Structures are given as C-alpha cells and as structure tokens.
Amino acid sequence: MRKPLVFIAMLFLAGSASLSAQRRFRVGPTVTSIALEDLSGRSHGFTSFGASAALITGDDAETGLTVSRYNDLSTDGRARRLTLVGLDSYYYPVGTRGVAPFAATELGLARVTESASLCPLLCQDTVSTSSQIAIGFGLGVRLNVGAAGAAIVEGRFLQVPGSDIQALEARGNVSIAFGRARTGQFLEGTLGPTVGVLIPVAGPLRARGPLGGARFRRDTKKAGTVGL
C-alpha cells in the first residue's frame, strides 16, 4: 500500500511544483456521507473522514489529491472497510472565483477490506484485503471565503468495480487557501435565481415543474459572456 501512495503523491507534487508560486492552492479536511443499499434495497448511511489538497491549474480547471477512510461500510453484518486515495479533476465552466459551480471526476486506488459473502460461523476468519480501482463523478459548488479560505459541497456517484461498493455520496470540504487568486480570462460575474417550467408534450412523457435553481454568469476578456 505504501508504494502506490508515494507514487500518487509524487505525481501530484510534480504537477504542482512549477505552478505553486503563482496559482491558488488549498488544503483542508473532508467529510463525506455515503449511502449503500443492501440486497433488499434498503439504504444504509455511513460517514467517512479524510483530507484534500488541490491546485488551480487554469481559468476553469483544478487538480487535487484526496485521501478518505471509511471505517465501516457494512450493510449485512459482514466486515467492509475502505481506504481511498484519489486524483481529482475539477472543471469550473464559469471560473473559480466567488460562488463557482463545478463538475468533478476522480480516479483512485481503493484498498477494500471485506469478508466473504458466505461465512456461517466466524466472518473474521474470511476477511481479506485487495486493491481496486475507484471511479467517481459528481457536481458541486465552490464558495471562496475571503482571501484565505474555500468551502466545497459536492454530490457524486462512487463505484469500486470488483467489490460491492456502488453508492451515492455527499462530500464537504473546508480548506485554507494559499497564493494569489487567479484572474485569467474570467472577469467579475453574477449569481441569481432561476425558475424553469416544463411544457407537456404528447405521448407517455409528462412534465413536472416548476423547477428552481441558480444562474451563474461571468464575463470574459475574449469571448464576451459565459453562462450556466
């Protein structure tokens, strides 16, 4: 386990070393709430803790490294634990300043400890640990707090192929920020409410609404205005 962790950390540091002096960097604790379903379809909630570090690499991009520990993911009395080390990629369509929505992907190394599916006597005798690839996709919002902090809330889908871990997860992160804020091509923007109404059409599909949300808009130096 130690060698893969060192390798991932070296990749992250190598990519950020030349940019750290002029790019925005953040580091802080991460708390997640994850929901797993058992064989009957009943949902079980669990909490994990970890830490995240990320570096803004462009007007609309950020790269990060997250380590999370899930001490108990058991839905049926069997032992199941997870340690996840992931490389995160954040895409900010209207920039990273102020209130900024983003889409995130994660590719990571998961160390899964779980007992066999059939253990009639002592499950602890059948517990094994394996290394798996983990993937995650999510949407979230970043809030920059002054010049020294940032908070992130994200909802995502997480899966570890080769195990029983396939779940929806909510992540929250509060970080201390270092370095000057990046201006780039994005200028000041606006945030406002929006309401959507779906119009019914013929056939089996039926509209549901109205829908509430938020509108993000930011001016750019070259392309006019970008909105979401």
Question: What report would you give on this structure?
Answer:
- The chain has 228 residues and is mainly β.
- It has 2 domains: 2-178, Porin, CATH 2.40.160; 186-227, no CATH class.
- It is 7% helix and 58% strand.
- It has 1 helix and 11 strands; from the N terminus they run αβββββββββββ.
- The strands form 2 sheets. Strands 1-2-3-4-5-6-7-8 form an 8-stranded antiparallel beta barrel. A 3-stranded antiparallel β-sheet has the order 9-10-11, with no helix packed on it.
- A hairpin with a 4-residue loop joins β2 (43-56) and β3 (61-70).
- The longest helix has 16 residues, at 2-17.
- The radius of gyration is 21 Å and the shape is flat.
- The two termini are 41 Å apart.
- Residues 14-22 have low confidence and may be disordered.
Walk me through the topology:
Blueprint: H1 2-17, E1 25-37, E2 43-56, E3 61-70, E4 80-91, E5 99-114, E6 128-145, E7 149-159, E8 166-178, E9 186-196, E10 211-220, E11 224-227
Antiparallel strand pairs: 1-2, 1-8, 2-3, 3-4, 4-5, 5-6, 6-7, 7-8, 9-10, 10-11
